[in-house]
Specification:
- By secondary structure, this protein is mainly alpha-helical.
- It contains 6 helices and 2 strands.
- The protein has helices at 2-15, 18-24, 32-38, 40-77, 83-137, 158-170; strands at 27-30, 141-144.
- The longest helix has 55 residues, at 83-137.
Length: 181
């Protein structure tokens, strides 16, 4: 019985034209890196990250300069400094170096958290928009460009997604969602 079912299934599959099946299947793709770099939401996220990063970098750079200055003082004055004064300078240098390491670690963690938060928000909106486009235009499959080796440019839905994302982000918070399913 199982062999008969398998043979019947194989026979049916052989009679289906692969070209005909492909014509019925509407496929598209999106370029996420391009969406992030060209959309208003992506540009705003980048600006938000830079706004957090810039002052942190300035503080870290100031501490690094202070540590370098102390290091130079120790090197220049090592022969004239008393053991106690030299020890105090070394301790001050080590404290500054520890502060720099902590600031860098804390800054990275905060930036990573903010970047993840902003990215996830954009990805959710992109996912909703892609679902809407797929539903409205009858796409059976919409892929990310990262998994595609070669595709026709006509299948690229990135511009549509960017346009809708910009429109969505331009609407007030209480505006209805695009999803019309």
């Amino acid at each position: 019985m199982r062999k008969i079912l398998l043979l019947t299934l194989c026979s049916v599959l052989l009679y289906i034209s692969p070209a005909g099946a492909a014509e019925e299947l509407k496929i598209g793709y999106i370029d996420l890196p391009r969406i992030f770099s060209e959309s208003d939401a992506g540009k705003k996220a980048t600006a938000d990250i830079e706004a957090i990063e810039k002052p942190k970098k300035a503080v870290i750079d100031g501490k690094v300069k202070a540590a370098n200055k102390i290091e130079e003082e120790i090197a220049k004055q090592s022969s004239v400094l008393s053991a106690g004064a030299k020890k105090a300078k070394v301790e001050e240098l080590e404290k500054l170096q520890g502060d720099v390491q902590k600031l860098v670690a804390d800054g990275r963690a905060e930036l990573q958290k903010k970047e993840t938060e902003l990215t996830n928000a954009i990805l959710k909106d992109v996912s909703d928009i892609v679902d809407d486009i797929g539903y409205e235009e009858g796409y059976a499959l919409i892929l990310r460009s990262e998994v595609i080796i070669s595709a026709k440019k006509e299948l690229d839905l990135t511009d549509k997604v960017i346009t809708r994302l910009n429109e969505l982000k331009g609407k007030p918070k209480d505006a209805p969602k695009l999803n019309t399913k």
